[in-house]
Every structure is written in structure tokens, then in C-alpha cells.
């Protein structure tokens, strides 16, 4: 919930007033590139889903990505594997990622925030979070190489941030930044609840809202990138493993294609020089790297899109998982 409190004061300026509707242009969109990353594996709400449902959801999500030849890296919280009687099946859901040709990275054992648990405990979380995925990757002749910060919390002070980064580098990790994020984790519990109740009308309403909000966030982020670093870098999109994405990631990919995006690997995206730009961002609340760069330059971003309040209101009573 703390992420949400941060957004409420922003509920004034609608993005369309600033940049105009995203679809009004008749010219072909520019050539854009994006890498897809999917967090909180094996599933955001793994605690309340059966292993069978997780496997079914994973097959659907990966099937779409695989059919459309879209690369992706999934970031794992291994704690979610340990449910009595289901450990093997939950590991099977992770193995599917590699069998389908995708890659796995570490997202800490229990989704620990560097800003909350302190450096030492967080380092333990990183180490504990890599035991199963390291084995699975070795089975596929791959090496563990990517790390994603839970909540995008990278440290409340620069010393902690730099020490954590040095620790990750020492263990062979490359940090996976995020530049595009449309808060699918906020929609997901509401969507999953509607699905459980068979409320297809609400599922459709949520899907429409999610896709249109994503389009708005992409437009805003492209502008912010141009203002901040002078061009649109190879973007990195943050999604989460949930039923909304399993059912509709194909629709989201279509939204991106309409904006001119091609889908590249995380490795390719990270080759963009943007990811080596000065970045001294620190804060109580994690945020994306476009914000990092803008804040580093002393130009905090203005006019971010407003997240639909009605979704927040429906999500509140559902104790939704955090990003
Ligand atoms: Zn997460």
C-alpha cells in the first residue's frame, strides 16, 4: 500500500492534457525496442494458488511469448516454492521457463526490500534466493546473471546503494533496471478475484483499463526519456506473473507493436549506453530508472499518468501482493 499513498497527490494532471491522445498521429511510429521482464515467479499470488493453477498459468503466459518469439526474463522469489506437498510442482513451473527457452533471474528469497531489512539481511536474502534457480539454470547450461530489486528499492542512502551493487557484482549479477511500468500488480488481484467469481464483465473492464493505462504510461515514459536523456533508450518493461498477464499479454504486446516496439533480449537492452548514465538516486520509495536519471539531473519528473482510482479502491480489500 505504501506505493499507492505516494501516487494519490498526483491525481490532478491527466497525461492526455499534456501530450495529446496517443493514437492521434497518422505518421508511422518510430523504431522502438523493449525487453520484457516478469517478476515474482512462480506467481505473484503463489500463496493462494494451487501448483496446478500456477503451472496452467505459466503455460499460457509462456505459450504466447514463445509463439510470438518474444524473449523474456523471469525473476524468482524462491520462498514461494516451499508449500507442503507442492514443492516439486512449483519447481516444475520454474523449469518450464527454461524449457520454453526463457531465462530466470533472482528477485531475493522472500521479496525483501533493501530499504526495509538493512544491507546484511538483504545480502542473505540474495544468497538464499539463488539456490534452486542456480541448479535449474545449470541443467540448461546457463548461468545465473540477472538481479531485480524487490519494489525497485535500491537503497535509502548512497553508501548502502553502492555497497549492495558491489555485492551483486561480486556474485556475478547484472542489475536489471526498469524503465516502463504500468502497475499490472495493482490490477492483478482484482482480476484474479473477478475470474474466481466468474465476473467476466469486470474482467473485461479491468483488461481494457490496463491496456489503455499501459499505452498512456508508455507515451509518458517515451517523452520523459527524450526530455531527460535526449532519446528513447532500449526500454525495459516490468510485468508480473499473474492471471491478467497469462490471459492478456498478447493484447499488451499488440499495444506495444502499435507504438513501434520490437522485442529484444534483456542483454541487448542493457547494451544501451543509457544504462551506464550517472545515477545517484536514493529514496525511501523505489522507482524506475527514467526517474533515477531525471532526479540525478535535478529535474524531478512532473505530470506522471494518474492510476485509475476505481482499481485502487477494488484492490484495497484484497490484500494484493506488492511488486
Ligand atoms: Zn517483485
Helix content, binned percent? 40-55%
Distance between the termini: 10 Å
Q: Structural class per helix/strand content?
A: alpha/beta
Number of H/I helices: 14
Structure explained in plain terms:
The chain has 14 helices and 8 strands. It has 323 residues and is α/β, with parallel strands linked by helices. Strands 1, 2, 3, 6, 7 and 8 form a 6-stranded parallel beta sheet that branches. A two-stranded parallel ribbon has the order 4-5. The model is unreliable at 1-20 (pLDDT under 50). The chain has helices at residues 2-7, 16-19, 51-67, 87-99, 114-117, 119-128, 131-139, 158-170, 184-196, 200-229, 243-258, 266-270, 289-296, 309-315, and strands at residues 32-41, 72-76, 103-106, 146-147, 174-175, 180-181, 235-240, 261-264. The longest helix is centred in the middle third of the chain and has 30 residues, at 200-229. Helices cover 48% and strands 11% of the residues. Helix 4 crosses helix 7 and helix 9 runs antiparallel to helix 10 (200-229). The structure holds zinc ion. The site of zinc ion (ZN) has 6 residues, from strand 1.
